[in-house]
Design a protein that fits this description.
It is a single chain. Among the domains are: 3-126, Leucine-rich repeat, LRR (right-handed beta-alpha superhelix) (Alpha-Beta Horseshoe); 135-213, no CATH class; 364-482, Alpha-Beta Horseshoe (Leucine-rich repeat, LRR (right-handed beta-alpha superhelix)). By secondary structure, it is an alpha/beta fold. Strand 1 (3-6) and strand 2 form a beta hairpin. The strands form nine sheets. Strands 19-20-21-22-24-26-28 form a seven-stranded mixed β-sheet. Strands 1-2-4-6-8 form a five-stranded mixed β-sheet, with no helix packed on it. It has a four-stranded parallel β-sheet with strand order 3-5-7-9, with no helix packed on it. Helices cover 15% and strands 27% of the residues. It contains eight helices and 35 strands.
């Protein structure tokens, strides 16, 4: 017997040896601690389950995949706290149905790496501010030093800034009518709340003795912050540029600047990286010098450079959305490009690039589709998935290298790449979308660096059909027919 069930409540999971757990139909509630410290890697929750109680999956450190049934209505406090391997989340319902689920923040506790939920009609992205029923319930960027709550929000939830211990500056809109002091408990005493003088928000905050002392008025603060940001940007630019050789093919571009940090794009020949540089330059100066030296070293591979960046602990950053539409990366003279960054990446790659290498926790979207001159692509460390249409119709792409950080190759990711001859799929991949390699007319060799049994466990559609000549997948211990 795998479960202790009382009525329609799953009280405890008993068979701790199973890798993949399927919760049976008829269960309406998963009780507190039912799976606590469980070693399962995958859990599928039936459509009958409506509530997942607090701490029910707490510290399931091997859990990498959860599938929610379409009937789930509420996830309680710390249900998935400590699930440090949880990257893949699916929901057997629509995005609209998922939006209605209460307690979604409990799926994205600090330390849980999941970034999205795959629904039947698309993908729900983890937001920076999670809003439920018009209430800002959780700020999900736990490392941020500054936060801004959307203007249309009128109510702050009691757990809004839970675990956001790095926050120093919070900017609120004009119309906040409820701001419980509990929302700010995790911040200690050293933070500022910026709002307009005489606004509804200002009046609401002044009614709280705990929050009144933290209020700073927007008009004065905006002028001061703008000046500080300008000084910091000039300082960051000057310091980074001082590390370049005089004759080097290098540049630094400030993408955004606030009182707390400057986001810069650094290019050294074929290598481009986006860094977040904090207000105190003494904390990143030596790290930046080490990273610039690695980026400038043409003898180093992309993997070697990325190792230096990670060891230096200089924070890679996402490109601000406000500048993505006007930004284009540059390839080197030989039309090669390595990019080190994070976050969502859209149309920033030049169309003349021949060889591209990508490193960091980024989402590619359709960033490289229709790149006719692209010959090879390396999907490097910490890229967790190859998004739909990422390399769609790259007609001359012939070489693809995929790192073991990749867990999913999505719908039509490489479709119409007519010159790809072979591909090695790492055993980390647990899902391959429909037509991922459709119309890859020369793809004769597909390898999987795991066993046949592991290959059979991969969730996969007809990814190879439509004019793909490969007939089987070569695994480490044999062949699996397609």
């Amino acid at each position: 017997m795998d479960f202790d069930i009382e009525g329609d409540v799953l009280c405890e999971y008993l068979n701790t040896g199973l890798t993949n757990v399927i919760i049976p139909d008829g269960i309406a509630e998963i009780e507190t601690w039912a799976f606590k410290f469980c070693r399962a890697e995958s859990v599928e929750i039936s459509d009958s389950v409506k509530e997942i109680d607090g701490e029910s999956f707490m510290c399931c450190k091997s859990l990498s995949r959860v599938v929610f049934g379409s009937g789930v209505e509420k996830i309680h406090t710390f249900a998935f706290r400590g699930c440090t391997s949880l990257k893949t989340v699916e929901f057997r319902g629509t995005i609209e149905q998922w939006e209605a689920v209460e307690g979604k923040a409990e799926l994205f506790c600090k330390g849980v790496p999941a970034e999205s939920v795959k629904c039947t009609d698309g993908e729900w992205k983890r937001p920076v501010v999670l809003i439920e029923n018009g209430v800002a319930v959780q700020y999900l960027d736990y490392e941020a030093e500054s936060a801004e709550i959307p203007e249309n929000i009128t109510e702050l939830g009691k757990k809004l800034f839970r675990n956001c211990r790095a926050l120093k500056t919070i900017k609120l809109g004009d119309n906040i009518t409820q701001a419980p002091s509990d929302a700010f408990n995790s911040l200690g005493g050293n933070f500022e709340i910026i709002c307009k003088d005489n606004s509804t928000t200002c009046k609401t905050l002044k009614r709280s003795p705990k929050l009144r002392a933290h209020v700073k008025y927007l008009v004065k603060e905006e002028a001061k912050d703008k000046k500080i940001a300008q000084i910091q940007q000039a300082t960051a630019d000057a310091l980074i540029k001082s590390f370049f050789a005089e004759d080097s093919d290098s540049e630094v571009i400030a993408l955004s600047s606030t009182k707390s940090a400057t986001i810069v794009l650094v290019r050294c020949g074929a290598n481009s990286a986006v860094f977040r540089l904090g207000a105190d330059y003494t904390k990143w100066l030596d790290k930046a010098k080490m990273c610039i030296a690695a980026l400038s070293d043409s003898s180093k591979s992309g993997a070697e450079i990325y190792k230096v960046i990670k060891n230096a602990k200089l924070t890679l950053s996402a490109i601000p959305k406000s500048v993505q539409s006007n930004l284009k990366l540059k390839a080197c003279r030989t039309e090669n490009l390595r990019f080190f960054g994070k976050g969502e990446i859209n149309d920033i790659f030049p169309k003349n690039v021949n060889n591209v290498e990508l490193f960091g926790s980024m989402q590619l979207k359709s960033a490289l589709w229709y790149s006719d001159k692209l010959l090879s692509a390396v999907i490097g460390e910490d890229v967790s998935k190859i998004d739909s249409w990422s390399f769609y119709n790259c007609k001359n792409l012939s070489r693809v290298e995929i790192s073991e950080s990749v867990t999913a190759i999505e719908y039509e990711a490489f479709s119409d790449c007519k010159n790809v001859l072979s591909v090695v799929i790492p055993k980390s991949v647990v899902e391959i979308g429909e037509e991922a390699f459709a119309r890859c007319k020369k793809l004769r060799s597909i390898e999987f660096d795991g066993t046949v049994a592991q290959w059979k466990a991969v969730k996969k559609g007809d990814f190879w059909k439509k004019q793909v000549p490969a007939k089987f997948v070569k695994c480490s211990d044999g062949e699996a027919k397609l």
